[in-house]
Write a structure and sequence with these properties.
Largest sheet: 7 strands, mixed
Number of strands: 25
Structural class: alpha/beta
Strand order of the largest sheet: 10-23-24-25-21-22-11
Radius of gyration: 31 Å
Helix content: 10-25%
Bound molecules: adenosine-5'-triphosphate, magnesium ion
Shape: elongated
Length: 562
């Protein structure tokens, strides 16, 4: 007897999913799964964050747990509500839902109380040395550090000073609270890490001037995870060396079985861009890009404005996967994801970038007719639309040559026939030129028996060219975006990254003629401009001034360039 088993191929688990499944099997934390996405609201989200978002929200979704959004807002100098708002908007747009929104600042009192407890237990002290001196005393991975002269000050003195630090009695930078661990510890992060610093110069976006001391990341993150009930605190590899300290802080006060556990995966880096909020902020502040949502930026809002859909971005993240090894992903993979996603979604339309007039001399004057064209050959459901055809059209200047070489298959007065897309077969007969010899008008004759969609429409010719009607086509500005940087890894160069910008990353083309139907297009509507690429309507576009952004060319044009 034979049996056939049909199996749908099951995607293998990534290593974090394996850990989670293991934990579930072992009944860790009572079988509860809780994650968080913890952005610092000091910039806009970039596609690297999306990798973390897909992991954090994805794990919760897959294992029926919860994922919260937690703003890691412990540094009022750099943080702002503008960033909080953009982050929530972007996560929603990506299609993820958090259970709750939390803020590290929700825990300022709890963290402060915990710091007091550390002081009382002799585990923390106030250091009055400068940041430089503290850094100098850190030692090296092979040499022990030096104890601060303030390390053994009495508990009562530490308590008094810390409370006064928080009352604003001391200047910013004059004192810090440090954990008293071990200045000779082989893990440098254990060499009396700073727990609190004074910040009085900037109001906190939620707590104003209430607090004068703010917890450092290492003291805030694990504790916040614990207060919330996070089970899997997933982050990127640079935090791996912090993990023992994360555990150490928890060990000092956690009782009972529940314990959050930090896990790390590799960061996303992509060629021809920078993946750091600090660098992106510089580009924005120095006017080197048009803002955080400049379509050349690797930010979520930039990609959105560029014409990427949430699905394209998520497909890309899915494809690259999660590992423990740092690497660099080729941007062409992201561009490929855009094409694959847009192919069945984007309506095919004609846009003429360098219009030249085409007159069909044997087509009756003042006559027009309505032709049908398919909206998307990759989507049977997409249907057709009407095109107005007439005697005078625009075609691409490059689709005509007066004296053409043998391998030029488009229009030329050499007897060769060419099809006008979704219309008729035509044959060029001549052209007009201005005083400088510049071609101004091309003349042709059409064959009335060759209308697309009729029997005569089946006649095959070597090439098909795009056109729009002179009378009803509309003018548009097209912003042709390319990669922001001219080199693969701007961060690896000796030069400042700002010197490595691609001078051709934006070409603005005015006077493009597009099909009449596009006059009604709405911001972020997506199209394929036939033979050119994928484009979307810019949010600043209006019916009076249409603006399209190039998402990606049809083919990888960059490969040809370099
Ligand atoms: P940047 O280096 O751009 O300033 P960050 O790590 O400081 O980023 P956070 O707001 O602290 O930004 O990050 C929130 C979460 O996103 C963290 O868990 C972090 O590990 C993750 N994350 C940040 N950048 C990347 C990246 N390039 N790839 C994957 N995850 C990332
Ligand atoms: Mg950070």
């Amino acid at each position: 007897m034979t049996t056939t088993v049909e199996e749908t191929p099951k995607k293998s688990l990534n290593f974090i999913e394996q850990i989670v499944e293991n934990d579930l099997q072992e009944g860790r934390n009572g079988g509860r799964i809780q994650t968080r996405f913890p952005p610092e609201p000091n910039g806009y989200l970039h596609i690297g964050h999306v990798k973390a978002i897909c992991m954090d929200f994805g794990i919760a979704e897959k294992y029926h747990g919860t994922c919260n959004l937690r703003f890691d807002d412990t540094n009022p100098v750099k943080e702002d509500v503008e960033y909080v708002d953009s982050i929530t908007e972007d996560i929603k747009w990506l299609g993820f839902k958090w259970q709750n929104i939390y803020y590290a600042s929700d825990y300022f009192q709890q963290l402060y109380d915990l710091a007091i407890r550390f002081i009382k237990e002799g585990k923390a002290y106030v250091d009055e040395q400068s940041a430089e001196t503290i850094a100098q005393q850190k030692g090296t991975p092979t040499e022990a550090g030096t104890n601060s002269p303030y390390r053994d000050r009495p508990i009562a003195e530490n308590l008094d000073l810390f409370e006064r630090m928080n009352r604003g009695e001391f200047a910013e930078g004059s004192m810090v609270l440090r954990a008293k661990i071990d200045m000779a510890h082989p893990n440098m992060h254990f060499r009396d890490p700073i727990m609190y610093r004074i910040i009085t110069s900037h109001p906190h976006h939620r707590t104003g001037y209430t607090w004068k001391v703010y917890p450092m990341y290492d003291f805030a993150h694990g504790q916040s995870d614990y207060f919330e009930g996070v089970t899997h605190s997933i982050c990127t590899l640079e935090f791996e060396v912090h993990r023992p300290l994360y555990d150490w802080f928890l060990d000092q006060f956690v009782e009972g079985d529940y314990r959050p556990k930090q896990r790390e995966f590799n960061r996303l880096n992509i060629t021809y861009t920078v993946m750091s909020k600090r660098k992106m902020l510089q580009l924005v502040q120095e006017g080197l890009v048009a803002g955080w949502d400049d379509p050349r930026m690797p930010t979520v809002c930039g990609l959105r404005r560029r014409g990427y859909t949430p699905q394209a971005i998520r497909n890309f993240i899915d494809k690259i996967g999660y590992t423990k090894v740092e690497g660099m992903i080729d941007v062409s993979l992201l561009e490929y994801a855009a094409r694959e996603d847009l192919k069945p979604k984007a309506t095919r339309v004609s846009a003429i970038f360098e219009p030249i007039k085409l007159v069909i001399t044997n087509y009756p004057e003042n006559q027009t007719e309505v032709l049908q064209t398919e909206n998307n050959p990759d989507d049977e459901q997409a249907g057709t639309r009407d095109l107005l055809f007439g005697r005078e059209l625009y075609i691409e200047r490059g689709d005509f040559m007066e004296e053409a070489p043998k391998d030029f298959f488009r229009l030329s007065p050499n007897g060769r026939e060419v099809r006008l897309k979704s219309a008729y077969i035509v044959k060029a007969t001549g052209c007009d030129k201005d005083a400088e010899g510049h071609i101004t008008t091309v003349y042709c004759e059409y064959d009335p028996t060759t209308k697309s969609g009729t029997e005569g429409g089946n006649r095959k010719v070597k090439s098909t060219i795009n056109w729009v009607n002179i009378n009803d086509s509309v003018e548009a500005e097209v912003r042709v975006y390319d990669r922001l940087f001219a080199v693969e890894d701007p961060s690896a160069s000796d030069k400042d990254f700002r010197e490595l910008l691609n001078p051709d990353s934006l070409k603005v083309v005015q006077g493009v003629r597009v099909e009449a139907a596009l006059a009604k297009a709405q911001p972020l509507d997506k199209f394929q401009f036939l033979k050119v690429g994928y484009f979307c309507v810019d949010p600043d576009s209006t019916a009076e001034h249409l603006i399209f952004n190039r998402t990606v060319a049809l083919k990888d044009t960059w490969a040809k360039k370099v």
